[in-house]
């Protein structure tokens, strides 16, 4: 069996550690390199069999076929340059990109294969399809609201998953999320507009990731919810995506492509 050699960027973080734990359970993968910031604890020390944690993806480009990134947008964009230079594919799990940063990723995907997803769990990707279908069926009869909760350390809001769920709902009802999203309410907001797609964010404790899409009608309400209780569901999905991506042509792929 051909093994895909992966590198993990953000290896000292929560997702990085979950990925390191999961790699040995994927026989079609081998860890080739692991990176984090130059001042991360453990730099220069072994992090897995035969692999030391280092800080320069460019210097070790011969050691991996696909780079998996779970960092911050700045880390992703720096890694994108490295992968463009070496022609390696990228799995991007980082969230919180601006429209400009997202455009850079899209441009890069014309030259290298990139799998980008705000959530690599199979359950959430199933929910995306369910939400789009529910929105199409319920249409203009309901108000759509998305509630998400995450641990106290999360730095971006709404979550990447909430935004993907919002896009799925918007597609279902034939609206543009950019035009109809309402990300905050405070003070005298006036009554809700039927076409709004509202977002609410909770941060605290060790919540791994909860998302609920509510379709609120008159006399009934439909809710589609996903609750992650560990990070293995994200790491296993990202590792599956890395192996899938390894022989793909340049393009911007999603977890839907991986699971097809
Ligand atoms: N798509 C998905 O399925 C999932 C996505 N995520 C997303 O993944 C990202 C990481 O989450 P999480 O692991 O919890 O975060 P952590 O903060 O625990 O880990 C991120 C790691 O990356 C490091 N890092 C940050 N910036 C850089 C950089 N420029 N170069 C190198 N290393 C860098 C951090 O170092 P330092 O601490 O010093 O900043 C840290 O060690 C977030 O955007 C999160 O939303 C999370 C879970 C699932
Ligand atoms: O930061 C996290 O932890 C998570 N981030 C992703 C997101 O922004 O949706 C995915 C997951 O919910 C965990």
From TrEMBL:
<dbReference type="GO" id="GO:0016726">
    <property type="term" value="F:oxidoreductase activity, acting on CH or CH2 groups, NAD or NADP as acceptor"/>
</dbReference>
<dbReference type="GO" id="GO:0019877">
    <property type="term" value="P:diaminopimelate biosynthetic process"/>
</dbReference>
<dbReference type="InterPro" id="IPR023940">
    <property type="entry name" value="DHDPR_bac"/>
</dbReference>
<feature type="binding site">
    <location>
        <begin position="117"/>
        <end position="120"/>
    </location>
    <ligand>
        <name>NAD(+)</name>
    </ligand>
</feature>
<comment type="subunit">
    <text>Homotetramer.</text>
</comment>
<dbReference type="GO" id="GO:0008839">
    <property type="term" value="F:4-hydroxy-tetrahydrodipicolinate reductase"/>
</dbReference>
<feature type="active site" description="Proton donor">
    <location>
        <position position="154"/>
    </location>
</feature>
<comment type="function">
    <text>Catalyzes the conversion of 4-hydroxy-tetrahydrodipicolinate (HTPA) to tetrahydrodipicolinate.</text>
</comment>
<feature type="binding site">
    <location>
        <position position="36"/>
    </location>
    <ligand>
        <name>NAD(+)</name>
    </ligand>
</feature>
<dbReference type="GO" id="GO:0005829">
    <property type="term" value="C:cytosol"/>
</dbReference>
<feature type="binding site">
    <location>
        <position position="37"/>
    </location>
    <ligand>
        <name>NADP(+)</name>
    </ligand>
</feature>
<feature type="binding site">
    <location>
        <begin position="93"/>
        <end position="95"/>
    </location>
    <ligand>
        <name>NAD(+)</name>
    </ligand>
</feature>
<keyword id="KW-0963">Cytoplasm</keyword>
<dbReference type="GO" id="GO:0009089">
    <property type="term" value="P:lysine biosynthetic process via diaminopimelate"/>
</dbReference>
<comment type="similarity">
    <text>Belongs to the DapB family.</text>
</comment>
<comment type="pathway">
    <text>Amino-acid biosynthesis; L-lysine biosynthesis via DAP pathway; (S)-tetrahydrodipicolinate from L-aspartate: step 4/4.</text>
</comment>
<feature type="binding site">
    <location>
        <begin position="10"/>
        <end position="15"/>
    </location>
    <ligand>
        <name>NAD(+)</name>
    </ligand>
</feature>
<feature type="binding site">
    <location>
        <position position="151"/>
    </location>
    <ligand>
        <name>(S)-2,3,4,5-tetrahydrodipicolinate</name>
    </ligand>
</feature>
<dbReference type="InterPro" id="IPR022663">
    <property type="entry name" value="DapB_C"/>
</dbReference>
<dbReference type="GO" id="GO:0050661">
    <property type="term" value="F:NADP binding"/>
</dbReference>
<protein>
    <recommendedName>
        <fullName>4-hydroxy-tetrahydrodipicolinate reductase</fullName>
        <ecNumber>1.17.1.8</ecNumber>
    </recommendedName>
</protein>
<dbReference type="GO" id="GO:0051287">
    <property type="term" value="F:NAD binding"/>
</dbReference>
<dbReference type="InterPro" id="IPR000846">
    <property type="entry name" value="DapB_N"/>
</dbReference>
<keyword id="KW-0520">NAD</keyword>
<feature type="binding site">
    <location>
        <begin position="160"/>
        <end position="161"/>
    </location>
    <ligand>
        <name>(S)-2,3,4,5-tetrahydrodipicolinate</name>
    </ligand>
</feature>
<keyword id="KW-0521">NADP</keyword>
<keyword id="KW-0457">Lysine biosynthesis</keyword>
<dbReference type="Pfam" id="PF01113">
    <property type="entry name" value="DapB_N"/>
</dbReference>
<dbReference type="InterPro" id="IPR036291">
    <property type="entry name" value="NAD(P)-bd_dom_sf"/>
</dbReference>
<keyword id="KW-0560">Oxidoreductase</keyword>
<feature type="domain" description="Dihydrodipicolinate reductase N-terminal">
    <location>
        <begin position="5"/>
        <end position="120"/>
    </location>
</feature>
<dbReference type="InterPro" id="IPR022664">
    <property type="entry name" value="DapB_N_CS"/>
</dbReference>
<dbReference type="Pfam" id="PF05173">
    <property type="entry name" value="DapB_C"/>
</dbReference>
<keyword id="KW-0028">Amino-acid biosynthesis</keyword>
<feature type="domain" description="Dihydrodipicolinate reductase C-terminal">
    <location>
        <begin position="123"/>
        <end position="259"/>
    </location>
</feature>
<keyword id="KW-0220">Diaminopimelate biosynthesis</keyword>
<feature type="active site" description="Proton donor/acceptor">
    <location>
        <position position="150"/>
    </location>
</feature>
